[in-house]
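Every protein is a chain of amino acids, and every chain bends into a shape of its own. The protein below has been through that process, and both of its lines are reproduced in full.
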Amino acid sequence: MNFFIESLLTQPYDCLILTNPQIQILDEISEKIQSFGIKHFNISRALSNALMTISTAERDRFAQEWLKDLIRGIREEIVLISHPDLFFHPSLKIDFFTLIRQISRSKQMIVLWPGEYSTDILSYAIPDHHHYRVWKISDSLLIQPKIVIHQISAAQGA
């Protein structure tokens, strides 16, 4: 397992998105990646604290700027982010995939994505979930910045 993760981390990327619909598998992957000395942030937990004093009307803009500032302010070369759930809340109206593409232009990052990726379709959550979202991923979206998306199987996460 560690060899698999290590091989993913050594390939060239600006943003490495690792997907699996099961949170516990993503949490296991998170622990393995952190064991290589990569700094981790549970961004929903941190964002929920930051939003407490922000008016509802300002939350979407605030959340996007908050994440950009958080990630860009990290000194480490690579940052691992997990639990992006709050960024998908319909009230925020945030296109999370576009947001992480923007941020990865200035900071190399790994995103643990609760969803799936196959045949150029990236999804968040499962179809029955009320925050379910889908992106058609064209080759041009993966080039500048260099985005690598990898579906993690249950066996790879174990």
About this structure: DSSP finds six helices and eight strands in the chain. The chain has one domain: 2-157. Helices lie at 2-10, 23-34, 43-51, 59-72, 96-103, 154-157. The first strand starts at residue 15 and ends at 19.
